[in-house]
Give the backbone structure.
Amino acid sequence: MVDTHLHQNSVQDVLDYDREKELKDFDDTKAGVKGLVDTGIVKIPQMVVIPTNELSSETSYSGSTHLHIPVIDLKDIHEGGCVLETLGLFQIVNHGISEDVMDEMMKGIRRFHEQPTEVKREYYSRDATKNVTYMSNFHLFKAKAANWRDSLSFSMAPVAPILRSFHQPAVISHSTCRDIIISYSEHVKMLRLTLLELLSEALGLKPNHLIEMGCAAGHNFVCNCYPACPEPNRTMGASKHSDPDFFTILLQGQIGGLQLLYENQWADIPPVIGALVVNLGDLFQLISNDKFNSAIHRVLANQVGPRISVACFFSTHLQPVNQLYGPIKELLSDDNPPLYRETLVGEYAFSYALKGLGNAALALFRL
């Protein structure tokens, strides 16, 4: 009788569940996932639970050990083309950014996310046109299951309105992370030139080809916090997806959780002290005409944390740039006709956001 009663309660709970209300109530707190953790929860809310029929496939982990994620020493920049063709992701060392700068960047982002909610909520917004935003899950109202992460995002180049935005309100102050963000941004702006030369040569083009195309004229940061999760096997830190840019430079902490999908198996991207992760995005797959593929990746939730990461996306979708991008003409031939139509970067970014995380917007642009 007790078991029957419990089952009836469970069924009634499902029938009474109002997902839209839970999402709205969560968003209205402007506290993010970190706010849930601060309340001391021991069970995660339904909105972040992966549906049972998808749980096995979404969280399956083959334990793949045959895949070696290469670590490229940028002292020898001219080796790495085959890596891009097969994986679309690699790690780099001797990249010119000191461990002190990287460590301070991670500490600064953690300081931001660990501020009281009443301080952070001044920046909480879903308006993608704002230069500085703090939110939880940009795809909150589209995804089948929300992710276990909060994000601080801002635009830095070619113009950096963030320099003005950081002065008010004082949430992002000198003592939090303002100065290190500006410093780290200058470092990655230099690194992008080296990487664009590497990518150009990997395509068989002149070293300055992608620079002249303006592929990295703009960049923006998404600084993620993945709090410790009481039930990590029921949700994801970040669902399976590719990035909507040309390429991404990722600074990740030592907790781990980042995985790459390769030949239908998930492989860990182990943190390497002093290294940065570089992965290709959808727009690079488009301009390379499928010579290289964007890297499909995800982040596992973890019982320890917080995991902090800083993703620098190289694109121009937040800037007033009207340049069309399509398959690079030098790569095309009768045997290799264009596979994609030309698109504005802003158009692609809009389509990506409309589809939601992990829903293959690139297919919309195939000829």
Summary: The radius of gyration is 21 Å. The chain has one domain: 30-316.
